[in-house]
Design goal:
By secondary structure, the protein is of the alpha/beta class. It has nine helices and ten strands.
């Protein structure tokens, strides 16, 4: 009897071994940010105490603070200490369209920011499409941007890049630019500047492609919300509305974005104009 059972077990084992197992695909190495997770751009100088008070009151867990190597770091040192006490991550913010071709300046900034010891990572805002030559020289500028990202990655700290939501519409050498960027950075913030949560021309609607690509690349992606005045695009910003109305919209974005594995929360641009909307 035992011999018969053993034969059956061995036979089943051989049958199983002969079939290629259908394993589930690897999950992205990111976790969906819980609703209410916020980041914030801080381009201008501001009292560190006020910045951190606002951040804590608005569930901001990461601040992108502008770093100028020519300025002192006293204020940033105080900001870092307050952020540490509040459990907030501080990243160095910098970038110019000219960095697309001027890599030496970009790398000098990155190394100087790293040397301060104040920042967890580098939050880079380059936007080469703002260069006057973008339309005519896109084919040459795109490889320069990708080379810059490769060089920044070698500096050491994590690199997060601001990207337009339409990045997947650009092709480079038979490759999608969004995929090429995601392969080179540690995360992206999608400038999904709309003042509605869902639908075709909304924060989720315009960012859908990039969120999916980020998930496949196992890279975190934040969605950006604008609070500055944009005279040529009223539906691109929350400026002119109320803080409570913006919170309700962003809450709806949080809910809708939970189905994206890469979703890292919402980054609000920027501190002063966000604060001006009120509580």
């Amino acid at each position: 009897m035992a011999h018969a059972v053993l034969c059956v077990v061995l036979t089943l084992g051989l049958l199983v071994a002969a079939v290629h197992p259908r394993l589930p695909p690897l999950a992205p190495e990111t976790s969906v940010a819980p609703p209410g997770t916020r980041a914030m751009w801080l381009w201008q100088r501001a009292a560190p105490e006020s910045v951190v008070d606002w951040a804590v009151a608005n569930s901001v867990t990461t601040i992108f603070a502008y770093y100028d190597p020519r300025a002192g770091v006293t204020e940033l040192t105080r900001l870092r200490a307050l952020c540490d006490d509040a459990g907030i991550v501080l990243d160095a913010l910098g970038g110019e369209p000219a960095w697309t071709t001027d890599h030496s300046t970009a790398l000098a900034w990155a190394r100087a920011a790293t040397a301060t010891g104040l920042f967890r990572g580098l939050h880079v805002d380059v936007e080469p499409y703002l260069l006057p030559s973008w339309d005519e020289q896109q084919a040459a500028l795109v490889p320069m941007l990708l080379a810059l990202l490769d060089e920044l990655a070698r500096v050491g700290p994590p690199v997060e890049l601001d990207v337009p939501f339409w990045l997947p519409t650009v092709q480079v050498g038979g490759e999608n630019l969004a995929d090429a960027v995601l392969a080179r950075v540690d995360g992206v913030t999608v400038m999904s500047y709309r003042n509605t949560a869902t639908g075709g021309n909304s924060m989720i609607g315009v960012a859908d492609d990039l969120l999916q690509r980020a998930g496949k690349a196992a890279k975190p992606a934040r969605l950006g919300a604008e609070t500055q005045a944009l005279g040529d695009c009223a539906y691109c910003t929350f400026h002119g509305g109320s803080g409570s109305a913006m919170r309700a919209t962003l809450s709806a974005v949080d809910s809708a974005a939970q189905r994206y594995a890469a979703f890292e929360g919402i980054a609000v641009h920027q501190y002063d104009t966000w604060m001006a909307l009120g509580g």
